[in-house]
Design brief:
The chain is α+β, with helices and mostly antiparallel strands. It contains twelve helices and nine strands. It has three domains: 36-132, Serine Threonine Protein Phosphatase 5, Tetratricopeptide repeat; 134-205, Carboxypeptidase-like, regulatory domain (Immunoglobulin-like), CATH 2.60.40; 245-352. Strand 5 (169-176) and strand 6 form a beta hairpin.
Length: 368
């Protein structure tokens, strides 16, 4: 009997465990249904209708706004979304939020064909009432993918034409697109008025410095940009005096002048030293006999006075060559210096003639 009772208890425990396992598996396979987005939107709409019927416009506005934001294009129709936008606009109209009311009612009436005739009339009447308190702006934009900023706040959509509503007052519209210059337009919004603005964003201008930049680093700038109050003008740089064959001749003239003057100076210094040495030797020979000086200059080359003759000739040669080199260098230097003063391009006179007329002067005319 004990064995039978024990077996029955084991079988009973296994049956209870199997039943719990099956129920859990069924729950996993068939989960409980959750409220869909459509049911959530319907709940907001019912709550908004009750608040609207009770005259609680703030609660009705919050409910319709929640329903409008929760409406998914995949689970709702165009007519449902248009009705939500219109009902939200009527709540905003009752709360004196005229700009928001005009925007939502206009969005609703964009799909007026999906609305019943009664709702169309209600929303059109509400839009006319809201339009009395706001200004309407029809904004055309080129390119259509440009961003639009209203009073510094970006509009989260892109289109070629915008229909916008503004509270009365001054407002700023900005268009921005990559590779284009920003377009700005300020206007004074008047209640009940309609404004039209067309904004075309020009392509960004290329800087003159970038356009005229040299293509390689070795290129030197060929023009100098001078800015003034009204704009900027470009003035060509004067040509370098060393950029042509006259410049090469000037360089050669300066080098020859320097070399000849230095060589002449060295020879003249050598002649002076030779003259001093000659005077000392001559004084040494004439100390014993005053008449020996004249006899020495008339002596033969193989006489003891031959060294004096060699020194005299060397002195005269060095002095003559040195003087000739100095004179030659002075002449070459004078000619080289004169070439600078006769070259008008070096003095910049070619730029001075730009502003004058090229027509030849006729006899009888008074110079301008």
């Amino acid at each position: 009997m004990r064995y039978i009772a024990h077996s029955l208890s084991v079988v009973l425990s296994l049956g209870i465990a199997i039943s719990f396992t099956k129920s859990a598996s069924a729950d996993d396979i068939h989960p409980k249904a959750r409220p869909s987005d459509g049911s959530t939107v319907k709940d907001h709409v019912r709550r908004g209708q009750r608040a609207r019927d009770a005259g609680l416009w703030t609660e009705a506005h919050a409910a319709y706004k929640a329903a409008f934001e929760a409406a998914d294009p995949e689970t709702s129709t165009e007519g449902e979304r248009a009705e939500l936008a219109g009902q939200l606009g009527l709540c905003e109209l009752a709360l004196h939020k005229y700009r928001d009311a005009a925007e939502h009612l206009a969005r609703s009436l964009e799909r007026r064909e999906a609305l019943p005739a009664a709702l169309q009339r209600r929303f059109e009447q509400g839009q006319r009432e809201a339009a009395k308190h706001v200004a309407k702006l029809v904004l055309g934009l080129d390119p259509p993918d440009a961003e639009v900023f209203i009073d510094g706040q970006r509009i989260g959509r892109t289109a070629r034409t915008y229909t916008l509503f503004f509270e009365p007052g001054k407002h700023m519209v900005r268009g921005r697109a990559p590779g284009r210059e920003d377009a700005l337009h300020s206007f004074l919004a008047v209640a009940g008025a309609e404004h039209e603005i067309t904004m075309q964003l020009p392509r960004a201008a290329v800087s003159p410095l970038q356009a005229d930049a040299p293509t390689s680093p070795k290129e030197a700038p060929k023009a100098l940009s001078l800015s003034s109050g009204a704009g900027s003008t470009t003035k060509a740089l004067p040509p370098s005096p060393w950029a042509s064959w006259p410049g090469a001749l000037r360089v050669a003239g300066i080098a020859v002048t320097t070399g000849t003057v230095l060589g002449g100076g060295v020879l003249m210094v050598r002649a002076r030293r030779l003259d001093e040495d000659l005077s000392e030797r001559r004084d040494g020979l004439t100390r014993g006999s005053p008449s020996s000086s004249t006899m020495c200059w008339q002596a033969a080359k193989d006489s003891p006075c031959a060294d004096l003759l060699h020194l005299r000739d060397a002195r005269n040669l060095s002095a003559g060559l040195g003087t000739a080199l100095v004179i030659t260098g002075g002449i070459i230097g004078t000619v080289t210096a004169a070439s600078f003063f006769t070259d008008f391009s070096f003095l910049g006179l070619t730029q001075l003639r730009i502003g004058f007329t090229s027509r030849p002067w006729r006899p009888g005319e008074r110079p301008a």
